[in-house]
Amino acid sequence: MAARHGTLRVSARSIVAAVVGLGLTLLGLRMAVGAERVIGWIAAAASVALVLTPVVERFRRWMPRGLAVLVVALIVLGGAGLAGYGIGASLVRQYEGVREAAPSAAERVERSERFGEVARDARFSERTRDVVDAIPEKLRGGSTAEAVRAAATRGVAFVVTGILTLFLLLHGPKLLTGGLRQLSPPLQERVRTIGARAAARAGRYALLTLVQASVAGLVGYGVARLLSVPGAAALGLWLGLWAVVPLVGAFVGALPIVAIAAAQEPWHGAAAAAFFVTYQIAEDLFSQRQIDRRTMRLGPFLTTLAGAAGLELYGLGGALVLTLALALAVAALAEVAALQDPEDEAPPEAQALPPAPAEAAERPGGGRLAEGHLAEGRSSS
């Protein structure tokens, strides 16, 4: 018997649907690219609100929600202002020291017998002075006009992100409740349970990780200052950013401190390496285990991957936002798996069984019903 071959038929309706779907997809991608800045502001505000929500809920035990949001906002703004001022002032002082020391070191190289002729031919001291003098322009984003435009853009971004964050902290629960009402009651309850638990997990994870990273950055700054390593504030900030990555981040972020200290004094470098290895081990055994136990375990691979992707897409802020989004996704998957655990659910056959006679007799009124039936039987006989 000859095999039958199916015939593929394409209708005009399916062609039109495919073309319309492709057009809508391209339009959506175009709109996403055009609204990249606004989407970034919303994502940043949602991330900050998610991190600050546990703190706001703590303050709500003693005050209304609006006042709790105001207190948390003042604490965060004050802490960020003090930290920014301290880091900025330290960087300015260290830049002034580099600006004086770098040309002097280049001139000593030009006067040396071994490299002097090559350094003079390359105009080493002059080029060094030009590079050092150009650092402020590079940091502020180019010329004065470009720096003003960049500062204005950043100022608008900070203001809009701050307003969105306050709005989400105040009205976020109402918005989520209104969105959940669009679902059916069973699905509504399931989504509410999974979302609330996942958000709580991810928020606690982000908050505790930021605290741990801040402590690591302060430790790195203190070690750099103790060993007279130049740029201690910048190196401490670098270590704190790397400390977000669990298990290995603190030591990887401390490598510049170790390298510069070893270049100045070899035994300083060895002591710094031993200290940061010990610090990384202590962090993994104590604080990181506590974070994993109280929230979830994200792991270094996923954290590094999300950080690298976010850094490529939207800079440092993108790295932090994408890492938090990944933590939220992992927490949601963990909650879904926990709700689908068969040990938490009663077997269907147990739910379908009728109550046992002994259980029926123990119910309220069960004994009186049985006596009534017996009395009816005696009277009929």
Report on this structure.
With 381 residues, this protein is an all-alpha fold. The protein has two domains: 37-182, no CATH class; 184-338, no CATH class. Helix content is 83%, strand content 0%. The chain has helices at 12-34, 36-59, 65-111, 116-121, 124-140, 144-180, 185-226, 232-242, 249-264, 266-294, 300-339, 348-352, 357-362, 366-380. Helix 7 runs antiparallel to helix 8 (232-242), helix 7 runs antiparallel to helix 11 and helix 9 (249-264) runs antiparallel to helix 10 (266-294). It starts with 11 loop residues before the first helix and ends with a helix.
Oligomeric state, counting identical vs distinct chains: single chain
As residue ranges, the low-confidence spans are 344-381
Give the distance, in angstroms, between the N- and C-terminal Cα atoms. Answer: 77 Å
- How many E strands? 0
Fraction in beta strands = under 5%
Count of all domains: 2
| Percentage of residues assigned to helices | over 70%
How does the overall form come out from the CA principal axes?
globular
Nearest-angstrom radius of gyration?
Answer: 32 Å
- Specify the number of helices: 14
Average pLDDT reading: 77
Main beta sheet: none
* H/E topology pattern: HHHHHHHHHHHHHH
